[in-house]
# Entry
Amino acid sequence: MKPEYLQLVRRAAEARKNAYAPYSGFAVGAALLCTDGTVFTGCNVENASYPAGICAERSALSAAVSAGKRRFSAIAVAAGENPTPPCGICRQALAEFGDLDVLCADQNGSRCRVFSLRELLPVSFSL
Ligand code: THU
# Structure
């Protein structure tokens, strides 16, 4: 794997440590690489009103877009015992900004599978 991707997976595993997941107990970290080389991280933030929670990937995406970034080359996700792919809502949210590489890692970032977003969401909704 590209060295910058290894680093991105490490950033996702690090971001996972801030996850607030008292309801599911499933901590997720994400790190989003912009085409200009900057990285934004996120974690899942759950809520007693369950639907108010947000996934790690959309948390990272919101941070990046809020900082004025709209062009992305890759996102790393770190969670679970086995490499974890993004949920359907996060795939759709990312697809808004075009294709990118999706690095699915386990919670330590030690095992990783790489997909393109288009591969994970071949026919996305758009307006
Ligand atoms: N979660 C994410 O953060 N990303 C995903 O792609 C899948 C699910 C979170 C949401 C919830 O806090 C917990 O994992 C269990 O679903």
In short: The chain is about 30% helix and 25% strand.
